[in-house]
Amino acid sequence: MLESEKKIRILLVDDHPLTREGIRACLADVPHIEIVGEAADGQEAVECARRFLPDVIVMDVNMPRLNGIAATTLILRENREARVLFLTMHDHIDYIVEIIRSGARGCLSKAEPSEHLLRAIEKIAAGETCFGISETLRYLRRYHATPPCEIATPLHALTTREREVVQLVGEGLTNRQISLRLNVALRTVETYRERLMRKLDVHDAAGLRSYAAASDCLAELGPNGPPIGN
Fold first, then answer.
1. Average confidence (pLDDT) over 201-218
2. pTM to 2 decimal places
């Protein structure tokens, strides 16, 4: 098979089985598309991206254990060549800003026709980006209206103490070790962790640790996040 005829290898990431089934059905008759794996949450997406090295990852935003934005950041930290296409029902500006800053190559509404999904996958596999003009304009308005260092992210929405707890969780400390490090009661640490999981849309300790790792990565990359496109 010639290089130009190689199939585009896809990883599907969505916590709803029916959604994944629908995407599979849309792409089933496309001869140059191959679905090599599926994941039901962000943590599993990171593991599958590492295992399968797909050409394009079709990613949901809100999922158990680890959301799609944090998962994308972790995937790109391991593989800067990874190409992520978000498929989402959210069109709020904060979601669009975070999706772009995560390093994703594109974003598509779940309300779009199926042929738009195929076109977006093909563009991203070819090294292009695929953000709709409305999303791009909203992002640029937000970017020019606010200094880059003040663009909202989940990490910036946390209090100073919450960020400290996230950092210590990322270092692998237990609740008791965190309570000793911060000189607060054990129950206080447990309350912070419960609050953090609600705020960050993660649902267990592994997801919180993964978010902490992703936050470290974002801090290292600076206010503009990973590069977009080529």
1. 63
2. 0.62
Contacts of 73 (CB under 8 A, 6+ apart): 102, 103, 214, 217, 218, 226
Say how far apart CA 49 and CA 59 lie, in whole Å: 11
pLDDT of residue 150: 36
Angle between helix 68-78 and helix 205-221 axes, rounded to 10 deg: 60
* Model pLDDT, residue 114: 85
Alpha carbon distance, N-terminus to C-terminus of the chain: 26
> What pLDDT band is residue 35 in, cutting at 50, 70 and 90?
very high
Residue 47's Cα: distance from chain center in Å? 13
Question: What Cα–Cα distance (Å) separates residue 68 from each residue in 148, 179, 192, 205?
Answer: 22, 30, 23, 17
Q: Distance (Å, rounded) from C-alpha 181 to C-alpha 24?
A: 48
Q: Residue 8: which H helix or E strand, with range?
A: strand 8-13
Nearest to 103 by CA among 135, 70, 132: 70
Confidence label for 32 from pLDDT (cuts 50, 70 and 90): very high
Q: From the CB of residue 69, how many other CB atoms can be counted at a distance below 10 Å?
A: 26
Long-range contacts of 147-152 (CB under 8 A, 24+ apart): 148/223, 148/224, 149/223, 151/97, 151/101, 151/223, 152/94, 152/97
C-alpha count within 13 angstroms, C-beta hemisphere, residue 156: 12
The residues facing 35 across adjacent strands are: 10
